[in-house]
């Protein structure tokens, strides 16, 4: 009886948060609409030529700066080679493990187009600073070479969602997604929210979880990694400071989470801004080319995705052959005889909250297997589970 009361309370909680988030969203849209109306009242005698001149002169230094090349070629990783490249037109990253840099230059087919249009998955032309870095996003414009849609970067991140640039169109999002878009939740996430996972669910903590996943990530050291649903960027910063990867992408759907991630990166010492980018994207429509990424990490996120199968399928698509997927989530262990009674309640809660409650390790393994991943393993600590899988070579 207590178990059913818990599930019912959980559903009501997410329903309340969803309604609260929608009200905040409507208030924000009203404020933006008023701001647009005020913008149309700017005096007509304003010199546009002056503004254009200042803009072009400010951008020119960014275009003319010659970025330094980045190579991972230390004795510790002499068997791996990773080189990030970007032409003025198309931003690319090369990642070939276990080969020499000269071999890479001799074989241009090994180049990997990283960023892609989330609509048609074709190449994005980057009209901006060609260097992948946190500081390269402001003012950057990316355009799809096929559908011609443009995407832009703001002060903190690149917005590569399908609905990027829309002004009037909006979509319903489940409560689990809207919850983490609230600025208050984003502020609290690394200031007590995530730490509570250790008490309630047995999560070891970011540093220990990072050490646990190193064995799984070892085959792709020197390559690129996406920290999916990165939140405030705890693991993104760990990946970057470790020096184990040639490119780190901090990815989340929440704008406020990415803002927190950006602020923490700027405040943290001993972290390089180069080869680290922040991207807003939908986990079910990732803006990366197929078979272009070496590793994807999703920390405490699977249960929050509206459709875990769509998210894992997208991850499988963008992973290169041999690429690694590592994720952590909760498992609510339920005795097998109670499964027929618990499953309908879980589905009801999922429809209201947009999140999923996993009931067993076999369910997680089956999810990864159905999306084409192999070599699936699980490590448990109470409700905490770390699952790893690999894309077939």
Task: Describe the structure in brief.
The chain is 39% helix and 20% strand. It has helices spanning 2-39, 48-64, 101-106, 175-179, 183-193, 196-201, 206-217, 234-242, 255-267, 308-318, 339-353, 361-370, and strands at residues 70-71, 80-86, 91-97, 111-112, 124-127, 141-144, 150-152, 158-159, 224-228, 247-252, 276-280, 293-298, 319-330, 374-381, 384-390. The chain has an eight-stranded mixed beta sheet, sandwiched between helices. A four-stranded antiparallel beta sheet has the order 1-2-3-4, with no helix packed on it. It has a three-stranded antiparallel beta sheet with strand order 5-6-7, with no helix packed on it.
Question: Which helices and strands appear, and what pairs or packs with what?
Answer:
Layout: H1 2-39, H2 48-64, E1 70-71, E2 80-86, E3 91-97, H3 101-106, E4 111-112, E5 124-127, E6 141-144, E7 150-152, E8 158-159, H4 175-179, H5 183-193, H6 196-201, H7 206-217, E9 224-228, H8 234-242, E10 247-252, H9 255-267, E11 276-280, E12 293-298, H10 308-318, E13 319-330, H11 339-353, H12 361-370, E14 374-381, E15 384-390
Parallel strand pairs: 8-11, 9-10, 9-12, 10-11, 12-13
Antiparallel strand pairs: 1-2, 2-3, 3-4, 5-6, 6-7, 13-15, 14-15
Helix pairs in contact: 1-11
Pfam families: Methyltransf_11
Protein name: Methyltransferase type 11 domain-containing protein
Family: Belongs to the methyltransferase superfamily.
């Amino acid at each position: 009886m207590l178990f059913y009361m818990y599930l019912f309370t959980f559903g009501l909680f997410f329903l309340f948060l969803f309604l609260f988030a929608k009200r905040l969203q409507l208030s924000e849209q009203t404020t933006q609409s008023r701001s647009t109306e005020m913008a149309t009242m700017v005096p007509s005698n304003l010199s546009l030529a002056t503004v254009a001149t200042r803009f072009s002169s400010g951008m020119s230094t960014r275009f003319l700066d010659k970025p330094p090349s980045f190579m991972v070629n230390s004795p510790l990783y002499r068997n791996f080679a990773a080189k990030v490249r970007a032409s003025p037109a198309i931003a690319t990253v090369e990642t070939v493990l276990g080969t020499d840099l000269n071999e890479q230059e001799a074989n241009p087919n090994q180049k990997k187009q990283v960023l892609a249009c989330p609509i048609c998955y074709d190449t994005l032309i980057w009209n901006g600073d060609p260097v992948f870095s946190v500081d390269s996003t402001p003012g950057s414009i990316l355009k799809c070479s096929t559908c011609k849609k443009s995407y832009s970067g703001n002060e903190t991140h690149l917005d590569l969602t399908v609905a990027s640039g829309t002004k009037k169109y909006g979509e319903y999002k489940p409560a689990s997604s809207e919850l983490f878009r609230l600025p208050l939740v984003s502020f609290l996430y690394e200031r007590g929210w995530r730490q509570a996972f250790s008490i309630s669910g047995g999560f070891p903590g970011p540093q220990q979880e990072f050490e646990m996943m190193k064995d799984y990530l070892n085959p792709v050291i020197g390559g690129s990694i996406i920290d999916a649903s990165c939140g405030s960027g705890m693991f993104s910063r760990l990946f970057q400071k470790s020096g184990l990867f040639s490119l780190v992408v901090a990815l989340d759907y929440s704008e406020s989470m990415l803002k927190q991630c950006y602020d923490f990166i700027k405040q943290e010492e001993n972290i390089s801004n180069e080869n680290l980018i922040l991207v807003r994207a939908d986990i079910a429509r990732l803006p990366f080319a197929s078979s272009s990424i070496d590793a994807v990490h999703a920390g405490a996120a699977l249960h929050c995705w509206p459709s875990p199968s769509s998210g894992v399928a997208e991850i499988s698509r963008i992973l290169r052959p041999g690429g690694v997927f590592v994720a952590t989530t909760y498992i609510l262990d339920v005795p097998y005889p109670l499964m027929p009674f618990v499953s309908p309640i879980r589905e009801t809660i999922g429809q209201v909250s947009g999140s999923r409650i996993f009931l067993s390790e076999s369910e997680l393994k089956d999810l990864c297997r159905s999306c084409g991943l192999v070599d699936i393993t699980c490590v448990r600590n109470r409700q905490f589970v770390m699952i790893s899988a690999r894309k077939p070579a």
